[in-house]
Structures are given as structure tokens and as C-alpha cells.
Amino acid sequence: METRTIWAASDLEVRQQGGLPAIVGKFPYLALAVLADRGTVRKETIAPGAFEFSLSDATREINLLFGHSFDKPLASKKSKTLELADSETALEFRAVIPAGAEKVSHVADALALVGAGLVKGVSPGFRVPPKDVVPNAEELVPEEGNPGVMIRRLNHLVLYELSLVTRPAYEESAAELRDMIRANNCTGEHRVLLP
Questions:
Q1: DSSP classification of residue 134
Q2: For residue 12, what are the CA distances in angstroms to 20, 121, 138?
Q3: Residue ranges in the chain assigned as alpha helix (H)
């Protein structure tokens, strides 16, 4: 089953890279998302390294999308417009928008909405491998001190895409717009933090 949960984006921003717009952000590991399904509440967390299978496979495509729509691509791993870097705390991404693509309506919308702070969430599209292939891919554990709430700990996942979305699961998520002036070296920076 493919899962789409809206998570917080950390340091989601739009900036210029070599004269091209770029969207940069982080997907936090070990943060909790609250999920409600037919009256049952549970929390979900993704462990560091959970996306290792997809990230280490050079032939596997991963897309950055707008609103989980494959009809609204922003960048991709295979086209070398999407860079992904994994650490113990987050999956970081940088999507460089190719020349001319910023004129496409959904790309222009994404850039404007991220820049305005209206889109500040990241939602990964992934699948949990079958238990007979990866036995410990996921586990349900009761929340300490609250046994009625289960935490779904995701340890191994197949990542297909990351999507920019409007409603992050966490209020503390933030987006910012950076304007970087580049010559041979960075000669100035104007930073605007948006609520």
C-alpha cells in the first residue's frame, strides 16, 4: 500500500542557484505525525536510513512533485535536477528548476506559494516492503504512558516521490524566501522569514 503522510518541512526555501530558481528543504527523521483512521489515532515516525534502498539505487527514479501529482513534476533524480542527501537527522533535498520551466503554470505556482509561505510541508510517497522480504520494515509500538495510541515506526521504505503540500503535520514547520545575489562570490544576502 502506498502511503502519503504530510510531514513538516524544515528550512523549506526558494533561492537562486546559478541564475536558476531552486527549492531546498529537509524532511525530518524521528519526528511524529498524527494519523487518524476511523476513530483510531496513531502516530507515525520514520527512522534515519529508512530511504536508503531508494537513495542508493542509481537507477531508481525519485521525483519532487507539487501536491502528489505526477502531472505536476518539479524535479527528478534521473534528470539530475533533484539532489538528495541523507543524514541521521533528515533527508535533505535541492531541486533546481531548469531554465524555462519556471514559466510552466504549476512550477510558477509552486515557487510563488513556497516563497509566500503558503506551501511549507513535505509529504513523501513511499511503500512499505512486504514482511516476507523485509521483516522489520515497520513495527507498531504503544506510546509510552499512553497505550491507547500506537506509534508506527517505519524502518525501511521504498521512496517514489516527495511532494510539496500546504498543510504540514507540525505547526513548528517554517518556510522562508531567500534572495541571493551572486557574482563571482556571494556579495549580499537578503533573508525574509515568513510566519
A1: S
A2: 17, 8, 28
A3: 52-56, 105-115
Q: Which residue shows C-alpha cell 523485509?
A: 134
Amino acid at 183: A
What three-state secondary structure class fits 141? strand
Identify residue 34 by its one-letter amino acid code: V
Q: How many CB atoms lie within 10 A of CB 48?
A: 15
24-33, 81-90, 145-154, 186-195, range with the lowest pLDDT = 186-195
β-strand partners of 10: 26
CA–CA gap between residue 41 and residue 110 (Å, rounded): 31
3-state secondary structure of 40: strand
**pLDDT per residue as tens digits for the range 48-74:** 999 999 999 999 999 999 988 999 999
